[in-house]
Design a protein that fits this description.
homodimer; seven-stranded mixed beta sheet; about 600 residues; alpha+beta; about 55% helix
Chain lengths: ~600, ~600
């Protein structure tokens, strides 16, 4: 079984050739990043991923997290050492603000690295991943004192962070949450309640854990308008910022779950724990959502990492395993051919390759938008980036994660019965991937976010901006790119028609959007991937040469495969989106 | 979390109303089965499934199988007791020949029951399931003495059976197998070799285990034409048919795998073990395939059981769980609506319902063909049934199992994050289901079997017979059924065009069939489901009444959902099947 090989070559292609990051995405502070610096960072991160954490992926899955004593969580063997090396290497600080000890790297580079860390070991990578989400949330919402206290310690990796949103009865519908925060005379709050599904809620990696907890103030209005956000650390900081008294909170249990066994999913009990308001009272959901939107891109990137890892295993197996005879094969040796020679195996491998590289390009394009939104010089460009990013976010999260489940399962299929055996490692990728369509907002919620809040709410203006950009690219291509430009224009037209149609229907039937949301998201997801593949094909066509880098031949061939075999899914989606769903959305379904 | 409820009502609909089994499928010996007898059997089997084995499903998964000592396998707690009750109830003998102590029930009824047993506890059900496969194989290939010795003991459940095909280097390609059988003077053989992935290769349920082993005779020609089949029991039978000496074979290890933890997947070492030739020398593969074809229908049925079980859990959760507000809902109470009110949740539930009931109808239709093939009075009808069954078999196996992975995953999605938690039980269904596309011939092999051996080999004649039957049904429907009959005719036309096209391409490009096989199988699978749903809708329309059984309303509404939302997948499949794949099937792919 082959180990994880960091996809540095393809990341370089996307960052340098497709997105031209060094020219367009300065580090925080405005300094341009040169290609050499980016390449050094990619190489070093790739080595860390494949050499330090990938070897702990299978053992972390087998061993899982344990509770040797009440409230104590033990991560799998080797996780702590790898985490210490990660901090020592400065990786936790990479995308943090230089003002807080960070290195100010752009999001697009940070996400490229995170893909590798997740591909190598998702259970492990989610610990620093969650901490960075908490960092982002404090950075956007904290006052100067909070920032000065918490951000440097999270940036260095000494302290970790968590996001405490879900309660047993309140998941998607956070308006139902019951955790209470009682003001105290000293300006702090006593936080009481139970949170579930808290990733890294307890662990043995860091000295302190900073919980960001959604709770209600006593006088809060009901529903989502009465939710506030609190900083509730496991150990109260001393005046000097050291580790003080133990706070009144504890991990009650950890979940037994399908995958990501190396990551502790905790039930957290807050029992009058001391906390401090983060941001404004009753504006907690908005404060959290700044981070959530970032996190949705990040989990999409996570999905891409798993697809890459599973695809590598499938490809390695297809090269080594010999079974049967393919109808045509240039050179035969031995009693059977490598299964890579069989057309159906190629179909599965090329599908995975087309999806992993297509979603990677799109996710990093979206990450670059985030950098423009936050750091761009031109206010108009920033606004445009914000609009496009809002649209891209649910697609990166939901489309990438759906494809990750499909592709990791397809990677298993390449292995035949051997794919079901734990020791071959590929089944873990499917078990790990299966959480991604569920967390950070289930995919159905992402689809409603896209169709309802991003398309219907502005009458299709934001989507129009996106489709216009795609169409302009298609129009600008010459004859040599026609094989890609024409179907790209066609799918833009399909998407425009679907959007118009949904805007019309929404007026007549309030359930229409819910019924259409998932196929609509998948249709727009294909527009995104078709655009990325056409752009990559255009680059590859211009740069290929007979004895040049084989990546250009690969890009062209994979683009063709995508357009011929995968993009046609949009034909069915268009038919489905044209159907009237009122019979099953409006009725009682008492017969179900 | 709701337990498993045997889908007796829907099975009655399929057996009595759709297939009219009591009129058309006599028991062995020609006796007609009346509806009351069938209903009693369904009820009793349903109770056994939901009351005896379903409660052991979660615990069996958690506990798994163990090897407390070398060669000894311990099944999970309760499995042995449940197996004893199963035998005492006569269930193992149900579909066996009355001449060997069986009850001679038709295959269509036996498969209806097996669906329930698998839905309740697949890991457990696979033990008697494999035994029955071995029974079938000995019944078709054994001489009178072998039949008299082994069949009554397997029929009673006292002895179990296994199928030993796969070796580490020989899975799909059995021609590569190396296990050797050396003739002895007394007419027996010494069998030596290692077999892997042997379901129930060792267990603690039965007194003896009868292994059916593929091996090579010393003078055998190479490849698949030199494979013979042997009976190799764990304990050699005494002259009186009792348990004699221990044979020279042992379980070397059991696999750690993604799912079906309750079923022991064994590596079996044969070390000069005594065996007897079953059927003719060098004709072992053909002998095995009589059973394999039967087993492929059975594993399709197994997939349907898991879809049903997962769908039930998802529906129960969607009724109980309240989150958010649906745009329209007749009666509101409490702070949130049941998630069943949300259109996207309905989409997921109706998709599962349409697929589970559609594949169930088709699998039982195919099972009925097997009864006609083996027991029908009219030789022409028997031949027609054999042709249709040959065509249906890979579809039942591969399409049902693909859908089982999709639907069990969709059932998890209905649960949101709670679906990932082991204690909620739904994730086990996906882990269990994931083996089905892999075993009994991986789905890619099924697809090549359909397109290559069943369609191209006879120039499309057999497929023509099937499509003709579907088309005749569509033509015979009146105006009231037009909403189903028209798209049914359309998809038949798509399938005809695709078949013609593939027959043409196959002449020009030997790789074309391999590239097209999976989408072709899925297209024909949709023809099958559309036909079943149109037939069910026609029945339901004729029999519904305002205060009648709600199943008819449900069938009509689900048929509409299938035609509007799921059948349109065929539009994309038709486009994909029209594409020329020679660029990626013929090339070297050195860049992959």
């Amino acid at each position: 079984m082959s180990g994880y090989i960091a996809p540095v070559r393809d990341l370089r292609f996307v960052l340098h050739e497709l997105l031209e990051v060094s020219a367009t995405s300065p580090a925080d502070g405005g300094e341009a990043l040169d290609r050499e610096t980016i390449d050094q960072i990619l190489d070093a991160a790739g080595s860390f991923a494949s050499e330090v954490i990938a070897p702990l992926n299978g053992s972390g899955d087998r061993e899982g997290c344990r509770m040797p004593a009440p409230g104590v969580v033990q991560t799998p063997a080797g996780f702590r050492e790898a985490y210490d090396r990660f901090c020592a290497g400065g990786w936790t600080a990479l995308a943090c603000d230089p003002a807080h000890g960070g290195q100010g790297m752009p999001s697009v580079l940070d996400n490229a690295l995170y893909e590798m860390f997740c591909g190598a070991n998702m259970g492990w990578a989610a610990y620093p991943g969650m901490s960075h989400a908490a960092y982002t949330c404090i950075a956007s919402n904290g006052d100067a004192e909070q920032q000065a206290l918490y951000l440097p310690r999270i940036a260095s990796g000494e302290w970790a962070g968590t996001m405490c949103l879900t309660e047993p009865h309140a998941g998607t519908d956070l308006g139902l949450l019951r955790t209470r925060a009682q003001p105290r005379a000293d300006g702090s709050y006593a936080v009481t309640g139970t949170k579930i599904f808290i990733s890294g809620g307890e662990q043995d990696l860091t000295d302190n854990i900073v919980h960001l907890v959604l709770a209600r103030l006593p006088d809060a209005p009901p529903g989502v308008k009465g939710i506030s956000l609190f900083i509730v650390p496991k150990f109260l900081p001393t005046a000097a910022g050291g580790i003080g008294e133990r706070n009144a909170l504890a991990c009650g249990s950890i979940e037994r779950k399908m995958g990501i066994h190396g990551n502790a999913t905790c039930t957290m009990n807050f029992d009058g724990a001391t906390g401090w308001l983060l941001g404004e009272a009753n504006r907690g959901l908005a404060a959290m959502f700044v981070m959530m939107n970032h996190a949705r891109i990040v989990v999409g990137v996570n999905a891409i990492g798993l697809m890459e890892a599973a695809c590598q295993k499938a490809l390695g197996y297809a090269r080594d395993r010999t079974q049967g005879r393919a109808p045509t094969l240039a050179a035969r040796s031995g009693p059977a051919d490598p299964i890579l020679a069989h057309a159906d195996v190629r179909r599965m491998l090329l599908t995975q390759k087309a999806y992993v590289e297509g979603t990677r390009a799109f996710a990093l394009w979206a990450s670059q938008l985030a950098d423009v939104q936050h750091r761009g010089a031109d206010p108009k460009e920033r606004e445009r980036a914000a609009t496009l990013l809002a649209l891209a976010t649910p697609i990166v999260k939901a489309f990438s994660s759906e494809l990750a489940v499909e592709c990791t399962s397809m990677a298993m299929q390449v292995f035949g019965g051997h794919g079901f055996i734990a020791d071959n490692g590929v089944e873990q990728h499917l078990r790990d991937a299966r959480i991604i369509p569920l967390y950070e907002g289930a995919n159905g919620i992402q689809a409603m976010d896209l169709l309802g809040r991003k398309v219907l709410a502005d009458g299709g203006a934001g989507l129009g901006l996106f489709l216009e950009a795609v169409e302009q690219f298609a129009q600008a291509q010459g004859d040599g790119l026609r094989e890609f430009a024409e179907p790209l224009s066609d799918v833009v037209a399909l998407a425009r028609r679907a959007a118009r149609d949904q805007i019309e229907r929404a007026g007549a039937d309030p359930n229409a959007a819910g019924a259409a949301a998932m196929p609509f998201l998948r249709l727009i997801g294909h527009v995104a991937l078709a655009w990325m593949w056409a752009r990559m094909a255009a680059l590859a066509r211009a740069r290929q040469s007979p004895d040049g880098d084989p990546i250009y031949r690969a890009k062209l061939a994979t683009a063709r495969f995508y357009f011929e075999r995968l993009l046609p899914e949009t034909q069915s989606l268009a038919v489905v989106l044209g159907a009237d769903a009122s019979a099953w959305t409006g009725a009682d379904l008492d017969w179900l």
